[in-house]
Every structure is written in structure tokens, then in C-alpha cells.
Amino acid sequence: MKLPEAFTSRMHNYFEEKGRLSEEADFFASYEKEPVHGIRWNRLKISEDSYERYMKDMGLPAKKVTWCDGGFYAPDVSLGKDPYYHAGAYYIQEPSAMLPASVLGTKPGEYVLDMCAAPGGKATRIAEDLKGQGLLIANEINAERSRALLRNLERCGADNVVILNEDPAHMVKSFRSFFDRIIIDAPCSGEGMFRRDPFAPKSWEKFGPSSCVPIQSNILEYAHEMILPGGSIVYSTCTFGEAENEERILTFLSNHPEYEIVPHRELAGVSHDDMGMMRIWPHKTEGEGHFCVHLRKRSSDEELSEDLRKTTKNKGSSQFVFVKARECFENFMKGLLTEEASSAYMDRIRTDFVLHKDKVHMLPVSEKLFSGLKVVKMGDFPGEIKETAKGRTFIPSQALALELPVEKIRPSRFFSLKRSDERLLRYLRCETIMLEEQETEMLDQGEYVVVAVEGLPLGFAKVTGGVLKNLYPKAWRLM
Fold it and tell me: Taking the complete model, does pTM exceed 0.85, yes or no?
């Protein structure tokens, strides 16, 4: 690979200054190797003791990524076409990129911001850690990339997530001292992308680290404004230059001495400096390379403004329309879920239900928080209310199907196919599915049913006689 001369010269100086010239040849030789690929199993859907069984089912070697629970190395095969992928069972992610969200250490019930979230690798991991409790705000400044973020979060069954398409500078006023944890996968010069993207070296020569440094500095300052005392900020890049990594952090710490670095020396396969900043090097570890540091803001007398996290809702419609729409939604969920799951969901509806025009949302905080911001997704979007000849009808969304665990769905509203069943690919291609007589008798006629692969929901269909009318989104169709 032809590497930019300015890059090779700088890295030579780096290894020389650090007394590590013996590593230089191996570092540059790593660029002649094939890129490393991986998958991360979704713990919202797959239990830890099932990882290796699923890997075997897919014909993949079960080699773990040491710094990420559920992370495995995988060959460069068509992982995006497997039915398990469409069920959100795993996320395709370069192993080095799994490090920052692991380091963040999100706990259920926390309020977390992913400031540069697309395409969603870190956001989906954070959603797993939240376990449906608390709130994740996933922001992406690029509108096109925010749509990819939406699809990835929905496919993974992420709960309690708001997606924004904002400049972080605009968010500070709304979320000052609001978040327990913030993750920054900062825009960078992308030196860790050289093996994966043939255009990356040319882009580096055109823009280079100098164009990224001011952006990175500003993003860190925005995070400082939005983090709570006692909260954590994880900053990461996929590049190797100190100007975008250690120097950014040292400058930030000199301006904000109330922060400390939290070391994670327990992580195998990761290099640590004396201060606790971390790197993954492509010549030392299987990965494309990453920088990561965990910062904690020391506690002070500053307190969270209680108004920001109140769950009082502005219902968004007249009281009559709101009540009728909620009843319509409740009736649908009572028919879809088991009695026990339905009871718990009704409690959630009472606190989180929001109606905007005909769209139903579930949001654990006040929607007033997002006033004036560009919202891509306002919390969960279970579906919408439609006026029909028979009255109000609730139409479920694709996201709802992917959020529901099999044990919460009534058996008569659940149709699971074996991975080897040829009808599975027909469903993913948005084709009609024919049912066997015994299958037809088990399902509720005329109702929405969840179609699944080996018990993992894929989407909705409607039962009409011995036929499943396919409701899989055409935009998601397997080609």
C-alpha cells in the first residue's frame, strides 16, 4: 500500500521519540495485511451462553474480541445477508471500534449521549447496556448518516432512544449538566481506515489532522457543558497521531482540572500509557487501530436541574383525541402480548405515551426537551393511528416487532421459521408466505403476527386464511 509520505515521516518520528523504533517496520508492514472484521452479539436478544452456538450455526470461528463482551472476530463474508443479522441478533463492527462503548460502562437507568453516533456501533452497544431503562440520545450531524443510524438502532431493538440530527453546539442549551455519560467517537483523519478504505489515504492528504483538531477540541468542550458532575466522558478516534489523541486530552485537562483519567488496565490486547490512555495498534493486536480515553468529572455541589428530567408530557393533541388514541394502542398491545407482559406495558403507556398527530411515541422524558432541535426519532415509535371505515386502527411499526422478546408475545400471534426453511428468505424478500394447515390453525386469523427466525423477531405479517400477507418493509428487503 502506498502511504502518504507525511504520514510515514510523522510515524517514524513518533516511534523514534518513544524509543520504540523496533516496532516501526512491523507497524508499516501491518498495512499490507487484510483488514480485520468482526461481529458483536446483541445482548438484548442473545444470551452470553448462546454466542458460540450461534457462531457454529453460521459456520464462523468462535474467536473472542478480548475487550468486548459479545465481540467476535469474523471472516469477510456476507454477514449482512444472514437472517440473524436482519433479526438484529448481531451488529457488524470492526473489533477495535468495540473498545470505546465497552470502556464507557453504561448502567441501566442512566442518561447517555452518543455525540457522533452514526452508523450506530457504539449506540447499539449502549442501548444493550441500558436494558430499556434510562435514555440514550444518539446524535448525528450528517442527515444521510442519521438515517443509517435509525435503521441500525431499530433493527437491534434499541429501546428508549432519541435520535437527533444536530450540530452539537446547538444541543448545549437544552442539555446543560444533563448526562451521566457521554461518548465521543470524534471526526478524525482516519489513519486506522487506510486498510479498509482505498480512498482514505487520499482523503488524509487532502484534509489531514490539522482540519480535525479544532472540531475535536470544540466537541470536547460541548461534552464538558453537558456532563453531570461525577459523570464520564469517553473520547476516541480511529487515528494514530498524538495531535488528535493525547494532545487533545492533555489540553482539555489543563483547561478543566476537575477531570481525571480512569484507567482500564484490566483490558487484554490494549496498550496503556502511564496516564491510562489506551491504544489498539494494528501490529500488536488484531484490529485496525484505535485511541480511547475515559475521563471522569469530579463531583461538586452542582446539582441536576430536576425540571430537565421530569416525565410530564405535552400530549401533542386534544385530550379527547389523546385518550381515544391511547385506548386504541392499548387494545392492540393487549391482543399482541401475553397477559403478564401486557400488564407491564400498560404501566409504561401510562407514563411514556406521547401522540404527535397520528404518530404514537413512547418517551421517558418530556418532549419539550427537544424543542427547536432536529429530531429523527422521538423515543420508541410503536406505530400510528389510522382512521378506517371500522373506526380507529393501530398500525404497528417495524421497530415494534424487533423490540419484542419472544416470551412476551402470545403464541397465537407468533410465527417462527427454522433458519433452513426456504420461506424465511421469501419473507425477507417481501414475498407472500404460504402456511401449512396446522400452522394456520395455531394463528389468529385476520390479526398481525410477528414473524421470526429461530425465535428472533423479524417483522410483522397478517394472517388471511392459509396465507401470510407480508408486511416486511420494502426498504429493508433482502436483494
Answer: yes
Nearest to residue 88, comparing CAs of 125, 132, 115, 116? 125
E-strand spans in 391-435? 391-396, 414-417, 433-434
Rounded CA-CA distance 46/38 in Å is: 16
Topology classification of domain 5-297: Rossmann fold (3.40.50)
Cβ partners under 8 Å of residue 132, min gap 6: 108, 159, 160
314 has a pLDDT exceeding 60 = no
**Catalytic machinery residues:** 238
Q: How far apart are CA 474 and CA 448, in angstroms?
A: 17
Tens-digit pLDDT profile for residues 150-175: 999 999 999 999 999 999 999 999 99
Cα separation, 334 vs 442, whole angstroms? 18
Per-residue pLDDT reduced to its tens digit, 76-92: 878 999 999 999 999 99
SS3 363: coil
| Closest by Cα among 150, 199, 139, 207 to 175 | 139
Q: Which residues is 6 bridged to in the sheet?
A: none
Rounded to whole angstroms, the Cα distance separating 181 from 205 reads 34
For the domain spanning 410-479, the CATH number is 2.30.130.60
> What are the domain boundaries of the chain?
5-297, 310-405, 410-479
| 291's grid cell | 485511541
Number of CB atoms found within 10 A of residue 254's CB: 8
C-beta of residue 272 within 8 angstroms of C-beta of residue 335: no
Q: CA nearest 413: which of 370, 357, 387, 451?
A: 451
Share above pLDDT 70 across residues of the chain, in percent, rounded to a whole number: 96
The rounded distance, in Å, linking the Cα atoms of 235 and 225 is: 15
- Average pLDDT value for the chain: 95
Q: What share of the chain is helix, strand, coil (3-state, %, to 5)?
A: 40, 25, 35
What is the chain's Cα-based Rg? Answer: 24
